[in-house]
Amino acid sequence: MRFESRRIFKSVATSQNVVRELLQMMFLGELISPGGQRAWLVSPWISNVVLFDNRAGGFSAVNPEWGAREVRLIEIALYLMSRGTSVGIATNFDDHNDVFLDALTVGAEEGGLSEKLKIVRRKHLHVKGILLKRGLLTGSMNLTYRGLELNDETVVYDTALQRIAEARLNFESYGRSEG
Questions:
Q1: How many Cβ atoms sit within 10 Å of the Cβ of residue 17?
Q2: Could you report the per-residue pLDDT of 128-173, keeping only the tens digit for each?
Q3: N or C: which end of the chain has fewer CB within 10 A?
Q4: Residue 78's CB: how many other CB atoms inside 10 A?
Q5: Do the strands 136-139 and 129-131 form a parallel or antiparallel pair, or are they unpaired?
Q6: Residue 2 has pLDDT above 70, yes or no
């Protein structure tokens, strides 16, 4: 049986690891089979959060250069771009996002990957979502430490092709308009 949608209610006390493991599986799938359509990270507030805990070496087969340490969002995004996947970031104009966006932009420039990175800032952005080739994660969670670790959040993971296609149309429209 194949599921198309899963709803997760996360709090500090429940399901916290489920969301982290889901994010790991989503990004691992993209890293192992990259390319194709743009990956989108849409979040009003975004930080360089830890995505993989590689201190035991469990993710070293994906990228041995990571070493035995925590691997953060910027490193994952840059590695995706180096493997052929374009990355889109949509966020708001809050100063909180500047550190992340500046570091990602510099990393892309240093790696010769600038053409693979699209950053869009929108004044009234409240949508949250991670769109990869095979899945869509939406809900109330920002891509920040508080969103991943502290806040009570509801997220929905979809693999239905129609919902992925609809999200892709919406997220790609961010790149065509100023906001």
A1: 9
A2: 999 999 999 999 999 999 999 899 999 999 999 999 999 999 999 9
A3: N
A4: 20
A5: antiparallel
A6: no
Task: Report CA torsion sign: 73, 101, 148, 167.
Answer: negative
Contacts of 120 (CB under 8 A, 6+ apart): 88, 89, 90, 91, 174, 175, 179
Q: Which two tokens stand for residue 80?
A: 């995706």
**Distance between CA atoms of residues 171 and 14, nearest Å:** 30
CA gap 88, 5 in Å, rounded: 23
DSSP states along the chain: ---SEEEEEE-SSSSHHHHHHHHHHHHHHHHHS--SSPEEEE-SSB---EEEE-TTSTTTTT-GGG-SSEEEHHHHHHHHHHTT--EEEEE-S-GGGHHHHHHHHHHHHHTT-GGGEEEEE-TT----EEE-SS-EEEES--BSHIIIIIS-EEEEEE--HHHHHHHHHHHHHHTTS--
Question: Quick one: 123 exposed, middle or buried, by C-beta within 10 A (0-12, 13-18, 19+)?
Answer: exposed
